Task: inverse folding
């Protein structure tokens, strides 16, 4: 189940001024040794709960979740998700038929939730995806659905004919979701308000390889990684990686500078990492070329990032890095009304 947690590492991560409660449902077919259905709950970009079809258990992923919610809460969530699981597995087959597909690896996904800003304003969203591409998304203000492709038009018309589906989403997103969001923020206040500076390393496999600036272990998630050449900002030949969460709730990010040995020799490059009020600068003198000497914490983070990319690629999750999207729930946190047939 370790890989299932990594499934969510690529999700949209919000800034510290916004609190978010998000749920991600993923149903799969054609993938061996992987749960056919997974539900992951996230607060401010951190995993707080998880359910999967293999264990058929919904469990807390943060200590403060376990301490503040009784067993009835977890049991009621399991019962709802068992029903949702079957609906999602059926939906994969339905959408496959619309694309004239009979086999292969396919995914049906939902992302839904709400945001609470410091000024008291709120947002809510619900969006479905198939095989890593948008399918249908909710406009809760007009109670309509937007179809991203011809195969989704059937679903759009079907759900708009039953206006209660969008209405239930709207009620959940504007009320219940915000209520649970506030509760969770209160439960996890000490953890969510912590501030931890990043550990920064310059990594290079050999003298002719690109140099990677790796920042890890920082919290909150807002970090800036830039390169300088001879004291001036340098943004050419730079590959900035995605912001990824670590298992302990902190974050990591990489930025790779792709220049040859001669350019390194003839210029003075430095990596500048800014987090909160702290600035960390690393230069050529700090490059680690023997990966066996890299601190264990960094190795673990880097390996997790690689596994993450593999898993995300398998389930087609990158679509959700482009947009926000969400869906409703029931009397507990994510007792969502996912019973709407595709």
Result:
């Amino acid at each position: 189940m370790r890989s299932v947690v990594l499934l969510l590492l690529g999700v949209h991560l919000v800034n510290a001024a916004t609190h978010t409660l998000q749920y991600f449902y993923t149903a799969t077919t054609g993938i061996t040794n992987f749960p056919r259905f997974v539900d992951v709950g996230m607060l401010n970009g951190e995993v707080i709960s998880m359910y999967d079809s293999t264990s058929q258990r919904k469990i807390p992923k943060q200590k403060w979740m376990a301490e503040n919610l009784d067993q009835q809460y977890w049991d009621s969530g399991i019962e709802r998700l068992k029903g949702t699981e079957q609906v999602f597995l059926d939906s994969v087959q339905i959408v496959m038929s619309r694309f004239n597909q009979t086999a292969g690896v396919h995914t049906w996904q939902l992302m839904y939730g709400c945001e609470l800003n410091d000024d008291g304003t709120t947002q809510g969203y619900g969006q479905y995806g198939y095989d890593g591409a948008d399918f249908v998304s909710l406009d809760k203000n007009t109670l309509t659905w937007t179809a991203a492709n011809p195969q989704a038009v059937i679903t759009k018309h079907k759900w708009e004919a039953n206006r209660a589906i969008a209405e239930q989403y709207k009620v959940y997103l504007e009320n219940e979701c915000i209520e649970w969001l506030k509760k969770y923020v209160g439960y996890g206040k000490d953890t969510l308000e912590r501030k931890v500076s990043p550990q920064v390393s310059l990594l290079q496999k050999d003298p002719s390889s690109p140099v990677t600036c790796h920042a890890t272990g920082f919290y909150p998630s807002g970090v800036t990684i830039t390169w300088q050449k001879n004291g001036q900002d340098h943004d050419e030949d730079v590959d900035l990686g995605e912001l990824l969460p670590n298992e302990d709730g902190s974050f990591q990010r990489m930025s790779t500078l792709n220049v040859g040995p001669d350019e390194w020799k003839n210029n003075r490059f430095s990596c500048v990492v800014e987090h909160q009020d702290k600035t960390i600068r690393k230069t050529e003198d700090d490059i680690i070329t023997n990966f066996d000497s890299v601190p264990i914490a960094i190795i673990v983070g880097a390996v997790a990032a690689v596994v993450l990319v593999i898993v995300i690629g398998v389930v087609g999750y990158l679509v959700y890095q482009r947009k926000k999207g969400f869906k409703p729930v029931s009397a507990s946190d994510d007792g969502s009304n996912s019973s709407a047939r595709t």
The CA atoms of residues 16 and 65 lie 20 Å apart.
